[in-house]
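[Discussion] Sanity-checking designs against the backbone

I'm trying to build intuition for which residues belong where. Below is a structure token string of 230 positions. I'd appreciate it if someone posts a full sequence so I can compare it with mine line by line.
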């Protein structure tokens, strides 16, 4: 943890594992957070804590040295207060994002009935990104509040019946429901979707990457190497 506290800038925190960052965050805030909504969000939160701590330490060092820095003290106090406000704001955003992630673990696609791999349907700040969800199994977009389908993939009647019939096969159902744990940079994730979320990777290519991962057992994507856990 002392190495984290000595980080020179936010980018330097990339050298530490998510587990170490989480341990530092909980130790400094007194919280019992189990995970960050994403690694990027975690780094930002930890850096806010580190910056505030470093500013306070710098002020204490000047006082002990007897340096007459009244103006500097006011500036340092202002920096510390600004850092605290930033921490509170980021904590609020983190809480909201974590709640959203947890909510996705309980929603069900109204088209195919899947509960896994449901994400927001667009960018944050847009109607699609704030109010609609997207199923990465059947490519259906639907309203979060009502569950009403907004847009479903075009299917012929024969194809729709064929797909519905295939779900009655126990082996097919089991294969589709299978979830592979993945390892990324020595960290284990319950699924590829959870790894994407933790690493703050867009889910647009989630299906394609999953298919390659199942086929090859190892895939490099977005600067990370994904492996199926054994």
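Best answer:
Here's mine. Compare freely.
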């Amino acid at each position: 943890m002392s190495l984290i506290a000595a980080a020179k800038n936010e980018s330097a925190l990339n050298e530490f594992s998510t587990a170490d960052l989480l341990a530092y965050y909980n130790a400094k805030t007194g919280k019992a957070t189990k995970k960050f909504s994403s690694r990027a969000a975690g780094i930002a939160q930890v850096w806010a804590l580190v910056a505030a701590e470093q500013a306070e330490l710098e002020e204490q060092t000047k006082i002990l040295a007897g340096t007459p820095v009244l103006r500097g003290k006011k500036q340092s106090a202002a920096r510390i207060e600004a850092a605290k406000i930033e921490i509170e704001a980021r904590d609020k955003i983190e809480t909201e994002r974590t709640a959203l992630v947890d909510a996705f673990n309980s929603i069900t696609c109204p088209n195919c009935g899947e509960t896994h791999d449901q994400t927001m349907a667009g960018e944050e700040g847009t109607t699609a990104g704030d109010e609609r969800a997207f199923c990465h199994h059947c490519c259906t977009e639907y309203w979060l509040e009502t569950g009403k389908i907004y847009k479903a993939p075009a299917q012929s009647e024969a194809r729709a019946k064929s797909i519905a019939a295939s779900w009655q096969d126990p082996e097919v159902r089991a294969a589709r429901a299978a979830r592979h744990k993945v390892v990324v940079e020595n960290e284990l994730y319950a699924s590829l979707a959870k790894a994407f979320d933790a690493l703050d990777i867009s889910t647009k290519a989630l299906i394609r990457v999953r298919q390659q991962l199942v086929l090859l057992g190892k895939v490099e994507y977005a600067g990370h190497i994904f492996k199926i856990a054994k």
